[in-house]
Amino acid sequence: MKIKPIKTENDYQDALNRLEVIFDAQPGSAHGDELEVLGVLIGNYENTQASIDFPDPIEAIKFRMEQLNYNQKDLADVIGLKSRVSEILSKKRKLTIDMIRKLHEGLSISTDVLIQEY
Predict the structure, then answer these.
(1) How far apart are CA 6 and CA 38, in angstroms?
(2) How does pLDDT run across 4-48, given as a tens digit for each residue?
(3) For residue 80, what pLDDT is reported?
């Protein structure tokens, strides 16, 4: 096990590649310990260096719909407005606060994602 701090993007990519190789290691084994330490190092690097932006609100809704096998009618049942669903999904109409609340409760999408400009 050769562990070193992750200081550069190349170090980060190397750590991710190594993580993939030992991902299924048994806990408590040498590779399991390496996996645990790599996970901490990678997490620390991502939290301090890599800025991950929130996804586009509409793309997040579409992604969640796909995960749940929802169609537009199902989404209309969540937000309560059949006539607005296609306009929202095509970005012709903005989400209202009430829609954001319903989407958060009904689809478990973070309000931080849903309130963004698009």
Answers:
(1) 9
(2) 899 999 999 999 999 999 999 999 999 999 999 999 999 999 888
(3) 85
**How far are the Cα atoms of 36, 42, 74, 94 from residue 45, in angstroms, in the given order?**
14, 5, 39, 36
Instruction: State the chain's mean pLDDT as an integer.
Output: 91
Buried b (16+ CB within 10 A) or exposed e, 12-46: beebeebbeebeebeeeeebeebbeebeebbeebe
Query: Angle at CA 90, nearest 5°, toward 87 and 95?
Result: 60
pTM of the model: 0.58
CATH architecture of 57-114: Orthogonal Bundle (1.10)
To the nearest 10 degrees (0 to 180), the angle between helices 72-79 and 97-107 is: 120
| Domain regions of the chain by residue span | 9-48, 57-114
